[in-house]
């Protein structure tokens, strides 16, 4: 995901998520009466688009609440780029000049399924999917703020799914 501002290198958010009965299109809320939610973020790169500071980060969720990653990123003050629900209208409008869709992409999904073996162990199954071309084009428009950020952005721009590491490898 690309989010606004300079995200800290590692951050965990446990804010409760509530989505209530306001309709499918309404944003979720951080609220004490919401359901427990757990999101971890890791910073990969910092970049800029003009004067706007941006962060490329990965997220891992321990729960699956509606809009959880988007809401928790905004709760930290780092709304996802081009997110019409969780950023202000002016920011969303500016983002449209370089990114046409919410910059959040599930690049890797791991799930555990029962093994075909006779014992009770589970097997990990993984799916990896590189960024779609429009998102890679958006990344090309950003100016990395360091050599390490440049290297990391290049990996995501390349579209090579085998450069998409697991959470623990970042």
UniProtKB/TrEMBL annotation:
Q: Which GO terms describe its biological process?
A: pseudouridine synthesis
Q: Show the GO MF annotations.
A: pseudouridine synthase activity; RNA binding
Protein name (database record): RluC protein
Organism of this sequence: Symbiodinium natans
The lineage is:
Eukaryota, Sar, Alveolata, Dinophyceae, Suessiales
